[in-house]
Design a protein that fits this description.
By secondary structure, this protein is mostly beta strands. It is built from 3 helices and 29 strands. The strands form 7 sheets. A 5-stranded antiparallel beta sheet has the order 1-22-18-17-16, with no helix packed on it. The chain has a 5-stranded antiparallel beta sheet with strand order 2-26-25-24-23, with no helix packed on it. It has a 5-stranded mixed beta sheet with strand order 12-13-14-15-19, with no helix packed on it.
Length: 493
């Protein structure tokens, strides 16, 4: 009887905790600004509203009806390139026109039995949220080849070319007979010749990556010169609440030199970098980044930015360079605000910006989309009302700078009743110049094209002369520097 009484008490406590959690999770902060007001080159950044419980509003996936399509921007047509796939995420276009897609989900979390009842409850809640968002289940761990041999806009050939050695794979690159794949915990190189229907050789591990945890996708881009790989690794946490030790090797972009086999941290302070592509104007690396949560529905906007070598974007201590996140317990590095960079372009709060490609030579998207970047906004789980669930275009000027507000390319994913037909995840160029979009919860690859358009011209590379080096110091130094223009004391570390 005593055991039964204890079980009943434990059950009552569990239900009370769930009830309290449910109460707070159904409340949350309602946005006062539109997504566009928190987007662009000069976004409105409201005062932070720190939350003890996150705002939660999940758009449950219900799928697309037979023959239903997203709404395309004027001048564009959208069709189904492939469907019936098991959680397709990253797309990669090969030089011969074939398209690779990773079928993947988060890796299994180790169950070490530690953490007690609260850890169990947190795990249960997280599992429930993943399930509601359509992201639960085991990872398929496959790379599938899609081929449109007859040019009708439908991939009539589909075959799994690789499954052995994959563990929650994301990013892919190919060059000179080698297929590079980023698992959640390592970068591998497989021998693979274009046109082959299978990957048969043994992989070579190039580098280890901080495994799984929190943001698990590991996306990759090969430098146009073919000699360096860039790998994006997101953080475990929201703002380092699990300690900064576990963030070692995370919240950054790695550069891996294929010739020397050496790696270095290329850009840091990036909470969850995802899409990667090189600017056709400057040749500089750009990325999309998912910013922090629990500061309200209007903060903090995800962003699109360049990543010069050595760049620091401030996570977790700063956002948008000058805004200090007072919730962070770890001491802020000295002078961080002085050298942290401001993101180039805000994409809106909680939109979950993922895939990124720039306009390229041969595209078939028409003149209205000929000079900019295409971005898949996967959609929020923690904003009221929801944001994202679309593909947008960001126009760039002649100097390679983003301008204006995000322009809708594909919409109609979000239903009026709060459910969603699907979630745009990745963007990539098809061999015929069309834009391909993966929809992970619906298992569909969409194809967008301007049917009457001619192949677009390449964006011209901007060539400028470097400033000559200073060979000597001349003039009166006090004309440039005063006695109070630099720190006299060493700040706390």
């Amino acid at each position: 009887m005593a055991i039964l009484r204890k079980l009943l008490i434990a059950l009552v406590v569990f239900l009370v905790i769930l009830g309290i959690a449910g109460y707070f999770l159904t409340r949350g902060d309602t946005a006062e600004l539109s997504v566009d007001e928190v987007a662009g080159t000069d976004p409105t950044l409201e005062e932070p509203n720190a939350e003890s419980f996150p705002t939660v509003q999940i758009a449950k996936p219900v799928g697309w009806e037979e023959g239903a399509l997203p709404e395309a921007a004027e001048g564009l047509a959208v069709t189904r390139f492939a469907e019936g796939l098991d959680h397709p995420r990253v797309l990669y276009g090969l030089p011969n026109g074939d398209v690779l897609v990773t079928l993947t989900r988060a890796p299994k979390s180790p169950d070490d039995g530690e953490g007690g009842i609260m850890a169990t409850i947190r795990g249960w809640v997280a599992g429930y949220l993943f399930s509601e968002a359509g992201a639960a289940g085991e990872s398929p761990n496959e790379i599938v080849l899609l081929r449109d041999a007859d040019g009708d806009g439908i991939a009539e050939f589909r075959q799994t070319i690789l499954s052995e050695g994959l563990d929650s794979p994301s990013g892919m690159s190919w060059n000179d007979g080698t297929l590079y794949v980023a698992n959640h915990n390592a970068v591998l190189a497989f021998p693979y010749e274009l046109g082959s229907d299978a990957v048969t050789g043994e992989p070579t591990k190039l580098m280890d990556l901080a495994p799984g945890g929190g943001h698990w996708m590991r996306n990759m881009e090969l430098h146009p010169d073919g000699d360096r790989l860039y790998v994006a690794v997101g953080s475990v946490s929201n703002i380092g609440e699990s300690g900064m030790e576990v963030e070692e090797g995370r919240a950054l972009i790695w550069e891996y030199n294929l010739a020397s086999g050496r790696q270095r941290q290329f850009g840091v302070g990036l909470r969850n970098p995802n899409g990667l592509d090189f600017s056709p104007w400057s040749g500089e690396l750009w990325t999309t980044v998912n910013e922090r949560d629990m500061l309200g529905s209007d903060l903090v906007p995800d962003y699109l930015t360049n990543v010069p070598v050595g760049a620091q974007y401030g996570w977790p201590w700063l956002y948008y360079r000058t805004n200090i996140d007072r919730r962070v317990e770890a001491p802020m590095p000295a002078y961080l605000m002085e050298y942290a960079r401001n993101p180039e372009y805000a994409l809106g709060p909680h939109v979950a910006a993922l895939g990124l490609v720039f306009s390229k030579e041969g595209h078939r998207m028409g003149d209205a989309f000929a000079s900019g970047a295409f971005i898949a906004r996967h959609g929020s789980w923690n904003r009221k009302p929801p944001s994202g669930y679309d593909v947008v275009y960001v126009a760039f000027d002649d100097l390679g700078n983003p301008t204006g507000k995000p322009v809708p390319v594909l919409t109609g994913f979000l239903n009026e009743d709060g459910t969603t037909k699907g979630r745009p995840t990745w963007v990539e160029w098809g061999g015929d110049g069309s834009l391909l979009v993966s929809d992970d919860t619906a298992g569909i690859i969409w194809r967008a094209i301007a049917p009457e358009s001619e192949p677009g011209a390449a964006i011209g590379r901007l060539d400028t002369e470097d400033l000559p080096p200073r060979r000597e110091l001349s003039g009166d130094p006090t004309a440039s520097f005063g006695e109070d223009d630099f720190a006299r004391t060493q700040p706390a570390q």
